[in-house]
Design brief:
The complex is a heterotrimer of chains A (about 220), B (about 140) and C (about 300). By secondary structure, chain A is of the alpha/beta class. In chain A, the strands form three sheets. In chain A, strands 3-2-4-5 form a four-stranded parallel beta sheet. The longest helix of chain A has 17 residues. The two termini of chain A are about 35 Å apart. The relative contact order of chain A is 0.12. Chain B is α/β, with parallel strands linked by helices and about 140 residues long. Chain B has one domain. Chain B is globular. With about 300 residues, chain C is of the alpha/beta class. Chain C has one domain: Alpha-Beta Barrel (TIM Barrel). An eight-stranded parallel barrel of chain C has the order 1-2-3-4-5-6-7-8, surrounded by six helices. The longest helix of chain C is centred in the C-terminal third of the chain and has 18 residues. Chains in contact: A-B, A-C. At the A-B interface, helix 3 of A face helix 2 and helix 3 of B.
Chain lengths: ~220, ~140, ~300
């Protein structure tokens, strides 16, 4: 899932500036699962902002809506009836995709309520960890299912570097050395020979370097 | 001389505090009339949003009463409540309402006197803190 | 085009001595030139670090040129932390055109250790891929993209680092082998304090015949104090300092003298290990001690 966390309250309060009425939009996708932008968090943010404004003597009106997904136009469309003239600002509590989809569809000032962190998973309740660097060309078959692009702090493809000690990365003793993990796994699977192959420089043109990336599937398109 | 009468909401777990309140009553223990009790099936039902909205709707202080740690009827509800109350305290600090206006206490159904003691002490705490910054027009009545 | 002197000396079987200078955090090269002049008669080449510990310093290319002009052979360090493959290759061409003949290919310390922890790291290629790029420019006359290099190719003597003290230990020799396979001609190791582990490492190196495929230069460092020794032991990733060295430093009346004595002993020990082609003396912030160490180790006027 896309993992996100809420922006500090004071930052969001600054983003909405002196708005009188805000529409706070949640998303039932990834950010609900990682407990940052679902119905519940929308309610909490709304309450926090109202409390803050009430204390400042500048009351704020909030409208709360949580969409099935903010990254699909058909659900974004369902927000239409809530985007009334008196809405000054829309706060999107989705990942960066949701913020942009709302901004593309509605002629309103749209601000993010979250910081989008990474593509990851839940390792325990309340803890999420990054797993995928979204690099556009998966090489996990070369490294025993452990991604060095995102889990090695230097993205080494021929690691580990000289800073790997007792299984930890040199930058922080809390971070496991990805290459130690890869080495251990390859050894357990009897595939250490694969690590002796020199991996060539990666083709980063498949990653984020060329403007927005697009995936097109002709077989599922609906136009005639 | 004027005295401030705080509005206090006590979210009480059915299995401990709610019965303790009954017991305090039948023991004829006195506790302030400022306390408004809200029954919960378990302190684990504590919701940050509800705590915040209590303040939004005029509370000067809020507390959650759950079973003694290790004795939750639903095993760990009171431990979940503890973390949420901690988080809500941080939010109140951030907003500038003071985290001291929110607290969690643990007790058992047999602790009528403790129920009354908590009610007295917490009311005193809030009385000292004064009205919530949100309640600009609090009831301040003349002391007789 | 004259070639690397360092390469000539190694091929003649001379036990090599290299030093190291960390360029300054300003634009005045005087100190580099001063140290290079002091070291001139004592070392065969000098490493110039590339923004070591991710702190902004005078560039290793410029520092190498200053050293060259002072009459000493430079080993230009090059990390993949701050430059992508375009900048790396461009700088390789530029460095060669300025007379630099040796390059040490490194990953580089992570930016979080330096004075710009908020910087974006590049890591477009890794150190092994950089070795391959330098080799292909030299031997195949092709750029990383495969395009032909028309005209003078940079003919670098290619170096790589090895750390026998990092983990996983068993993979350290294999990684060294990978670097040699990629094109490393010489290897400079991390500072050796733990001689036992280094001996073990070299035995594995010899078993795979790697000492015959690349020149292995062992790193040493004179310790100034017991505190410095403990710092190296506890705070520097990838370095191990055995307890007995710490104890010797603690007991010494003159810790600096003891540090020099230990360093000299280590050099003499390393000279006896089969497959060790030289020593690299890292005395950053204490560069002027290098002549003393070289003399005491009997490596002066070889």
């Amino acid at each position: 899932m896309i993992v996100a966390e809420s922006k500090p309250l004071t930052e969001v309060a600054n983003l909405i500036d002196n708005a009188k009425k805000v529409l706070i939009v949640g998303c039932s996708g990834c950010v609900t699962v990682c407990m940052s932008g679902g119905q519940k968090e929308v309610g909490i943010l709304a309450s926090k902002l109202r409390l803050l404004r009430k204390k400042e003597g500048n009351p704020l009106e909030t409208v709360e809506v949580t969409l099935t997904r903010q990254c699909d136009p058909e659900y974004v469309e369902t927000l239409k009836k809530y985007v009334t003239d008196d809405i000054d600002v829309i706060i999107s509590m989705a990942c960066g995709v949701g913020v942009q989809f709302l901004a593309e569809r509605y002629n309103k000032w749209v601000v993010p309520g979250l910081n989008t962190k990474f593509a990851g998973g839940t390792t325990e309740h309340g803890v999420w960890e990054e797993r995928c660097g979204l690099c556009g060309e998966c090489i996990l078959y070369k490294t025993g299912g452990i991604c060095p692009i995102i889990r090695c702090s230097k993205s080494l493809l021929n690691g580990p570097c000289g800073g790997s000690q007792e299984g930890k990365c040199e930058i922080n003793s809390e971070i496991p050395c990805a290459w130690q993990l890869i080495y251990d796994r390859m050894q357990a699977l009897g595939r250490l020979d694969l690590l002796m192959e020199i991996q060539p420089p990666k083709d980063w043109s498949k990653s984020r370097d060329g403007g927005l990336r697009k995936v097109v599937r002709e077989d599922v398109k609906l136009d005639e | 001389m004027t005295v401030f009468e705080p509005k206090i909401i006590a979210f009480c777990c059915y299995y401990c505090a709610y019965s303790a309140a009954d017991l305090a009553g039948s023991m004829r223990l006195e506790y302030p009339a400022n306390i408004k009790i809200v029954e919960m099936p378990c302190s684990g039902k504590t919701d940050i949003r509800v705590l915040l909205e209590a303040f939004e709707r005029g509370a000067d202080g809020v507390y959650v009463l759950g079973c003694m740690e290790g004795d939750c009827h639903f095993l760990k509800g009171n431990l979940r409540a503890k973390r949420r109350v901690q988080e809500a305290k941080k939010i109140l600090e951030e907003i500038g309402i003071s985290g001291k206006r929110l607290e969690m206490f643990n007790l058992s159904a047999a602790m009528g006197p403790r129920f009354a003691k908590i009610a007295n002490e917490f009311t005193e705490r809030i009385r000292k803190l004064g009205p919530s910054p949100l309640n600009k027009n609090s009831t301040i009545k003349e002391e007789e | 085009m004259n070639n690397s002197k360092m390469q000539q000396l190694l091929s003649q079987g001379k036990f090599l001595v290299t030093g190291e200078i960390g360029p300054p955090k300003h634009a005045n090269p005087e100190r580099i030139i001063k140290h290079a002049t002091e070291l001139k008669d004592y070392v065969d080449a000098i490493n110039l670090t590339d923004n070591q510990t991710a702190v902004v310093r005078l560039s290793s290319i410029a520092a190498s040129v200053h050293v060259l002009q002072a009459g000493v052979e430079p080993i230009m360090q090059m990390t993949v932390r701050d430059r992508n493959r375009i900048a790396l290759q461009s700088d390789l061409l530029g460095a060669y055109s300025l007379g630099i003949r040796n390059v040490l290919c490194l990953s580089g310390d992570h930016q979080s250790f330096g004075n710009h922890p908020m910087a974006k790291n590049v890591h477009d290629v890794d150190s092994i891929q950089l070795i391959q790029i330098v080799k292909n420019l030299r031997d195949k006359k092709i750029f990383s993209c495969g395009e032909e290099l028309k005209g003078q190719e940079p003919r670098f003597f290619i170096g790589a680092a090895a750390n026998p003290f990092a983990d996983p230990f068993e993979f350290r020799v294999l990684r060294l082998e990978k670097k040699i396979n990629a094109g490393a001609d010489f290897i400079q190791t991390q500072v050796v304090f733990d001689m036992e582990r280094f001996e073990q490492f070299m035995a594995m190196v010899r078993k795979r015949g790697l000492h015959k495929e690349a020149y292995i230069i062992a790193g040493v460092m004179p310790l100034k104090s017991a505190r410095a020794a403990k710092f190296m032991q506890q705070s520097v990733a990838g370095i191990t300092v055995p307890e007995d060295i710490i104890k010797r430093m603690e007991r010494a009346d003159d810790p600096k003298q003891e540090g020099i004595a230990i360093c000299v002993e280590q050099i003499k020990h390393l000279q006896k290990i089969e497959g060790v082609a030289g020593v690299h003396i890292m005395a950053v912030m204490w560069e002027d001690i290098i002549p003393t160490i070289v003399k005491e180790a009997g490596l002066h006027n070889r």
